[in-house]
Amino acid sequence: MARFARPKFTKGNNVNPWTLLQSALGTSLAFFYDIIPEYGIAIILLTIAVSLLLFPLTVKQTRSMRGMSEIQPEVKKLQKEFKGDREELNKRLQALYKDNGVNPAAGCLPMIVQMPIWFALYRVLWQGNGVPEDSALGEVFRVTSEALEAGKAITDPIFDSVTLLGMNLRVKPSEAVSLDNLAGSISYILLIALIMGAGFYQQRQMTRKKKPTEGQEEQSNQMQSIQNVMKFMPIIFGFISWNLVAGLGVYFATSNSFRIAQQAVILRMGDGDDTGKKAEIDSERPPDEPNNSDKGNGPSQHASKKRNRRRRK
User: Fold this and answer.
1) Measured in Å, how far apart are the chain's first and last C-alpha atoms?
2) How is the chain split into domains, by residue range?
3) Which of 95, 149, 296, 298 lies in the 20 to 30 Å Cα band around 23?
4) pTM score, two decimals?
């Protein structure tokens, strides 16, 4: 088993963005641990907090991806019209994107923003960087790090404070899974499966809402290479989670699952907006004229009422 270093806590006045990010994540993790003294739950709460902070980017990503899908017929027309003029085509496409409020690059924005968070969080969960040394979680890191350096078994009761569903979150799944302990390995395997499964589902969530039109299908063929690369991302994250501390895997699994819920809400809100727009358009249309049969029946009914009044008199 690999030896783990003692936690490296932030000290002194040597402050840089990387140190600040680790300190912010470590302090936040310690804060959630003080509220609920369960290491795995603290990671889940931290993940939800980060996801909520990034929610505006998630909204922008989801709406932009859906908007790109909906304007593909217009993109196809422009591609045919300006097939030999690349410069003019790019100008028209940029104008089309601007008019519809979409950005082709918005789909990658949340991932790019989160990359520094992933690297910093790995240092926090692996070595305790940024965790206040005098906090309850700081003591947990100190004790468990000493136990790991001493070569204690990962199932030793000393690791109960960093265990979630039978997983020691301070070790790598690749080190914890073994044929000699299949029962204890199931949780780690299920964690990796959840990370990959949620990642694949998250990608399909955007494409299953509507049946693609002819233009959208052609665009999908043109972007097939990009989509193929994106399809491998859940596998890549599964591989990363397999070889890094299980606590980071809990972060990825929670983040993917929470993102699925966020996208479901955003898409539902988008459907509501579309319905509202249709209703608004319908309300602006002139009301239907009464049909001829109604016009014909009107005078006769009025005349019959007059006759009835005369008879009563």
Assistant:
1) 109
2) 18-64+105-213+227-273
3) 149
4) 0.74
